[in-house]
Design goal:
By secondary structure, this protein is of the alpha/beta class. The chain is built from twelve helices and nine strands.
């Protein structure tokens, strides 16, 4: 089933059918990546422009590899060294990209709403690769795909997201995605980084979102544990205890992880602060699917590009 949209800006309004469409197409794309020659001609003749106003490794490279694996022409644009440094406005940049014949723009920007502005000013498709604190839809979709590949079904799973939820666009998109797919989402972390309104984000017949500040209680019987990156600058704003105290109360250790289901998956969107939000012995241990998330990111982003530009799933 195709995506009934021209853009991927947010997944808060995604239907179950749209989630299923991306996940099913990603299976085919993962098979493409496992071939000796991991390239198909599906998007030959299409132009994809990656415009990143923030530093990125995983997301930018992932979208670049995804486009090239589909045989699209891919161009990367960073704010550093571009006309933006000379004072060009964001809208002028969009018009320039449009004039160059882009079929799809992948945009990351520090301000929430920048992809919406792009969608209003471009006739081509726009994919949000992270905007401010609002969302990171492709990360949520690759996380869904990774979990589904291991469990077969997301409905009814207990998903624990740990850390700085307040400042995490990954968490915001992930909460929506997992809950919409029927999971029970538990949020854990310091009260200053976990406002109570987060448990009201998802309504209706979707999964349940709960807040549990005590991580040992939250992690009990969990099917998936996702640690979020702690931004050390938050400590200087009085929003965190010292890092040693954070690691003691909310760091994922082997002892703490043993409280989860024995088949539990350990996830992290990266980059990790090992020894703070996650201990080195579990970061790449038997429960970890962190490197698999990176690999799956290419397949899922291939699925997104394919569905937006080709119109029908593989």
């Amino acid at each position: 089933m195709p995506l009934h949209r021209r853009h991927l800006i947010d997944i808060a309004d995604f239907s179950r059918d749209e989630f299923d469409s991306v996940l099913e197409t990603a299976v085919s794309m993962r098979q493409v990546l496992e071939r000796p020659i991991s390239r198909v001609p599906t998007l030959r003749g299409k132009s994809i422009v990656n415009v990143f106003f923030e530093a990125s490794t995983r997301t930018r490279v992932s979208f670049e590899l995804a486009g090239k694996s589909l045989s699209a022409d891919v161009v990367n644009v960073a704010s550093s060294g571009s006309s933006i440094e000379k004072g060009e406005s964001l809208i002028d940049t969009f018009h320039t990209i449009q004039a160059l014949g882009a079929d799809l723009v992948v945009l990351r920007h520090p301000k929430a709403g920048a992809p919406d502005l792009a969608a209003r000013n471009l006739s081509c498709s726009v994919v949000n690769a992270g905007d401010g604190l609002r969302g990171h839809p492709s990360q949520a979709l690759l996380d869904l795909f990774t979990v589904q590949q291991h469990t077969g079904d997301i409905e009814g799973l207990k998903i624990v997201i740990v850390g700085d939820v307040l400042h995490s666009r990954v968490a915001r998109s992930g909460i929506w995605a997992f809950a919409r797919m029927g999971a029970h989402v538990y949020l854990s972390g310091p009260p200053t980084l976990l406002p109570p309104h987060f448990n009201k984000l998802v309504n209706g017949d979707d999964g349940i979102v709960r807040i549990e500040h005590d991580l040992d209680r939250a992690i009990d019987g969990a099917d998936v544990v996702m640690a979020l990156r702690i931004q050390k600058e938050r400590m200087h704003l009085g929003m965190l205890p010292d890092l040693r105290e954070y690691a003691r109360r909310w760091g994922i250790t082997s002892t703490r992880l043993s409280r989860a289901d024995r088949r539990a998956l350990l996830m992290h969107p990266g980059p990790m602060n090992q020894g703070i939000e996650i201990s080195p012995d579990v970061a790449y241990g038997e429960h970890s699917v962190i490197t698999e998330q990176v690999t799956n990111g290419v397949a899922v982003r291939m699925a997104i590009l394919y569905l937006l530009l080709a119109g029908t799933p593989a």
